[in-house]
Structure to design on (874 residues):
């Protein structure tokens, strides 16, 4: 993660400059919420909160930042000194990572002095938007995979280094089993999984020699790639290798008719008594392809997913905004055409049916208790984290529990049902009061 | 940029482990090329080479990386020591950044010992793919904008920190004028541009007071956001502010019918003698929206583009691959179904018509001179950069010259023409020889 406080939009600094000149530093409350679901999507999965909290804890303008600000020309020296002293000392309430949520429900609520709560807008959106985007996409793959192993292969086509690393985290918390990205293990302890590239086979004059050489190093983990030249011929070479006493962990199919090749390869392996050798498939897969392969009964034990998940290719962004909802004790809302927001500090209450499935949410003003469970929980108070950081495994378990609570219509990949999110009368009234203003 | 050598795929390390055990360290040549254009796209713009070269220059496993590798369990101590000594000492030839290119044309060719040239695959793709993706998208906006000012607003919804920063660079080299991302100025010297957020207006009880307070700090740069409540009423407040002697730089429209509001606001400003106040528009814009607004004659001086450009929303990834094309003096190719690659070291020759427009490319083997200009140029030799790093302004000028050389059919946003890329007979013959092989 970058800790650079200058990774922000210019307008955050120019607005802070004006707030500073005007002495505007009373308490502001901002909400980050998604306005609409991407087409064909039924729900979202909150993610990125841990990195958001780390950002807020560490936020400061260092000496080099202050030098740049002073030299830039548009900021007064007293304002630059103010920025040098600025820390995030506010409160944060948020959905725990892994929580299923819907439009109009705040993912995070930031309460702090106006400059502090304003400044953090750009990077908070940047962190929360991306992991939420990827966790939401990955959760659909998890639903489609019906329990099969899923591995994140996407770093190379993720949008830069941080995207590659955080996509590994977001897919893992949504239910993937592992990532190919080494740094994801170093930083987050995410299990690693990898196979081999076509280049390895091509660098050898003989495919069987390539297989033997790769397997010899670490047969227990070796997954051999079969499709460099001819998939079924390559499977026969795996059998020949096993006859020399080298039994590998698995094989990977990466092109062509994956279901057909998987059936052929399974038959070849089984006929040689290699029932324990697992078959992995990859190649521009997404939740729809996984669903089709599972439905076809293809004997595939696990899937490697990369580009389409790590870029959320069908919906590479969410329509979200970080909006001022209260300042100096007064609720606020914007009324721009098509972009009206709900004012005030909010809470979301969720009800469950007798099977524990989600049965409707109510968004209301904070302090207006409703039936059900409040979803936004305290995360920071006065700039400090409440409690210890949750372990990623605990977040992942929460994510799995959340997916298990999805009602059937929301589990459909296509044309999912619309979940009931109700605006409480108290919030409707507050909006009317603000509009009457 | 992260310099972490462990930002790679596990299989790069396990393949290197096997190469090490087998003593495979002869010269390998890899190509990075795009296989197919995204739907509706006519050309691509190469970008990211500077960051790729920096990565290769700095590549090393540091002490913490080596400790992780030793502790991981699957790597032998002698191999970990080998990694500790590993540096990139190979050659790189590439398309200069800003160059227009097409499928089957290598963006970069890496020549080095097999372990070195293999290891760098994951991060090289990660760096070159993303900036190429964004520069290619931004170039379309530049074509649509017909000379109007374009500003990158996209950091918040870019996929993480590095994506936000490098999207600013990629859009700038493709012809944007500025970015809102502060760090893009600090790191790359990209001009900054910013306006204000709705929150600033909402934090004030009175919109006119908000405008006055913001403008007072820096009227010369102040761009006031008009659509928090009512756009035309806000324009009247800009006029009132001017009557107090505070003349701002511009206004921004962010919602509703942008062309209609722009005409209304222009009329209101002009009637008050405020012809010099410029009008900017934003709000989920892309090249198509810009083209429509320009065609409608909307009096908009500049556009802020964010999400749809910084995520390349219609095509958030390119179908590209880094493929072994030669090892130990022998050309190589893969023949996976639907993913066949061209073998050998290649060069691309481009011809121009008498107006200087692109008139056809020929891809051939290196050392088979053809009419036209060779596009791949030497970038690194024996691990060191050839010449000095090009200035970003020079890259941007090259990008502008490249766009000016596009033939008319390729300039169309929809249903662009197909550019002629021919595979030379020498390359066809080489592929046949490899297949017979």
């Amino acid at each position: 993660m970058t800790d650079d406080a200058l990774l922000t939009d210019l307008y955050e600094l120019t607005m802070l400059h004006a707030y500073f000149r005007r002495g505007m530093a009373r308490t502001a409350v901002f909400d980050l919420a998604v306005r609409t679901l991407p087409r064909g999507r039924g729900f979202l999965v909150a993610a990125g909160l841990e990195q958001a909290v780390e950002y807020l804890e560490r936020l400061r303008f260092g000496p080099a930042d202050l030098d740049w600000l002073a030299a830039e020309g548009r900021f007064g020296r007293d304002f630059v000194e103010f920025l040098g002293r600025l820390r995030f000392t506010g409160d944060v309430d948020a959905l725990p990572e892994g929580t299923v949520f819907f439009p109009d429900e705040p993912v995070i609520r930031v309460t702090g002095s106006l400059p502090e709560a304003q400044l953090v807008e750009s990077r908070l959106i940047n962190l929360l938007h991306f992991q939420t985007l990827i966790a939401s996409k990955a959760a659909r793959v998890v639903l489609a995979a019906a329990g099969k192993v899923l591995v994140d292969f996407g770093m190379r086509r993720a949008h830069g280094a941080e995207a590659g690393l955080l996509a590994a985290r977001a897919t893992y918390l949504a239910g993937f089993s592992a990532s190919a990205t080494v740094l994801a293990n170093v930083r987050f302890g995410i299990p690693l999984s990898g196979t081999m590239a076509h280049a390895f086979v091509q660098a050898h004059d003989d495919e069987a020699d390539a297989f033997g050489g790769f397997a010899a190093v670490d047969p227990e983990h070796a997954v051999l790639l079969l499709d460099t030249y001819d998939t079924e011929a390559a499977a026969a070479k795996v059998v020949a290798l096993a006859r020399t006493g080298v039994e590998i962990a698995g094989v990977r199919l990466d092109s062509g008719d994956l279901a057909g090749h998987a059936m052929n390869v399974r038959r070849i392996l089984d006929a040689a008594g290699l029932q324990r050798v697992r078959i992995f498939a990859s190649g521009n897969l997404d939740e729809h392809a996984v669903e089709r392969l599972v439905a076809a009964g293809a004997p595939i034990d696990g899937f490697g997913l990369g580009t389409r998940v790590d870029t959320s290719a069908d919906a590479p962004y969410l329509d979200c905004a970080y909006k001022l909802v209260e300042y100096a004790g007064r609720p606020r809302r914007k009324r721009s055409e098509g972009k009206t927001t709900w004012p005030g500090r909010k809470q979301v209450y969720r009800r469950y049916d007798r099977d524990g499935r989600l049965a409707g949410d109510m968004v209301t003003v904070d302090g207006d208790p409703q039936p059900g469970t409040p979803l936004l929980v305290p995360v920071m108070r006065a700039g400090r984290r409440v409690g210890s950081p949750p372990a990623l495994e605990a977040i992942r378990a929460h994510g799995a529990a959340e997916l298990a609570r999805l009602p059937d219509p929301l589990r459909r990949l296509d044309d999912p049902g619309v979940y009931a999110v109700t605006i409480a009368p108290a919030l409707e009234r507050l909006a009317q009061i603000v509009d009457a203003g």
Summary: DSSP finds 17 helices and 19 strands in chain B.
